[in-house]
Amino acid sequence: MSGENEWRRAAVVVLGDIGRSPRMQYHALSLATQAHLEVDIVAYGGSDPHVAVKEHKSIHIHEMRQWPSNPRSLPKILRPLLLIFKPLVQFFMLLWYLCVKIPAPDVFIVQNPPSVPTLVAVKLASWIRRSAFVIDWHNFGYTLLALSLGRNSRFVALYHWIEKQFGKMANGSLCVTRAMQHELAQNWGISATVLYDQPPEFFRPASLEEKHKLFCGIDKSLRTPYSLQDCLSNEVLTTGDDNPNVTLFTTQTHTDISLKWNRPALIVSSTSWTPDEDFSILLEAALMYDRRVSALLNEDDLKREDVFWQEIKGGKQYPRLLFIITGKGPEKEKYEQKIAKLNLKRVAFRTMWLEPEDYPLLLGSADLGVCLHTSSSGLDLPMKVVDMFGCGLPVCAVSYSCINELVEVDKNGLLFSSSSELADQFMMLFKGFPGECDELKLLKQGVLASRSSVNWATEWEANAKPLISKVIFENSS
């Protein structure tokens, strides 16, 4: 950054859990390592950020007190008051941190959404502290609010007005897609620079040794079903595997590690367990795969239990599927209860929350990623797919308006619009797994070929760094 010895500080502002805000963590790392600035992160705690952020000597994390969850005992007639009271409390807390608790920065970089009260508080703080003010548009806050209140709500209209007016007051803007850039220019009067999400260097394919170490660490939880038994828990019954060097996927003999020929196919999906991601699509697709394979192979439910499970473990053209679902959110328990009631023969589900350092290893060890993200605005892209591509993992993703800016069909992934279509893709991609699934191998090759051409550091250097340098210079003139 020009004048980098002169400009000393940046503040990264997130009205959310910093551990679940990867893009803002990457901003902080780039500001510290590429722009050589001291960086203050103002955010909520809850989940640990990546160790590279926590341990960087130039990054200082300031955790605000989290707003308590809405009490269920609160009468419905009083709940609309929370829409006013909660932003007021957050507004004054933000002001206290941005104007008192941290040193005066040369630039504030704020995540949007949420827009209220974040944009208002940061704009006021930037005026008080004579700092530049940059918005990183991940989505539109008013469209997220409309999911719960409806597009015709007066609160949504007010939210939209505030978001637009204060968005126009920023010294500069970044956004995540060209479709969003066009929308901001045409209908908001805001000029934004596109900064595509890219994975940092710690998102990469895992080595065989790393896979084995990860699987050893989570093997016990993978063999514990939600219901009485499933195709993974029964592997213990039929083989008696209790060797700590043998996992569901790998075997270690002395120093030699190998992948099992009859291992399950590992599919990973990350979700916030919220209503805007319809997890039932994945459940239905898994159930369809289970039933279709059973019908194709004329499997007889009346066979002796141990023989039946052993045959399923053997593969017979179509493998067992293990879905690992990561993330935290309000609907997690509801779907775990649904999973427990499913009568699945060759499909198993596990949910877990991984440490930031283990999540890339899981993606780098998987065979396929599934993304259920549907944008409230139709203009943002799922960060989880970016992470999957960084780890060399092909993706099946829900189709919507601008997803093709990220997922190229038949090159690095596939798109689906229904559970039946997703089940078809599972049948096609995993037939003959692990040795003969050519379609899956081609997609993986496509991901690996494209991931080498660009990364977060180069994208940030080319697009974000010049904008931030410019707004700091203009603000100081």
TrEMBL record:
<keyword id="KW-0328">Glycosyltransferase</keyword>
<keyword id="KW-0256">Endoplasmic reticulum</keyword>
<dbReference type="GO" id="GO:0000030">
    <property type="term" value="F:mannosyltransferase activity"/>
</dbReference>
<dbReference type="InterPro" id="IPR028098">
    <property type="entry name" value="Glyco_trans_4-like_N"/>
</dbReference>
<comment type="pathway">
    <text>Protein modification; protein glycosylation.</text>
</comment>
<dbReference type="Pfam" id="PF13439">
    <property type="entry name" value="Glyco_transf_4"/>
</dbReference>
<dbReference type="GO" id="GO:0005789">
    <property type="term" value="C:endoplasmic reticulum membrane"/>
</dbReference>
<keyword id="KW-0812">Transmembrane</keyword>
<dbReference type="Pfam" id="PF13692">
    <property type="entry name" value="Glyco_trans_1_4"/>
</dbReference>
<keyword id="KW-0472">Membrane</keyword>
<keyword id="KW-0808">Transferase</keyword>
<keyword id="KW-1133">Transmembrane helix</keyword>
<feature type="domain" description="Glycosyltransferase subfamily 4-like N-terminal">
    <location>
        <begin position="35"/>
        <end position="192"/>
    </location>
</feature>
<dbReference type="InterPro" id="IPR026051">
    <property type="entry name" value="ALG1-like"/>
</dbReference>
<protein>
    <recommendedName>
        <fullName>Glycosyltransferase subfamily 4-like N-terminal domain-containing protein</fullName>
    </recommendedName>
</protein>
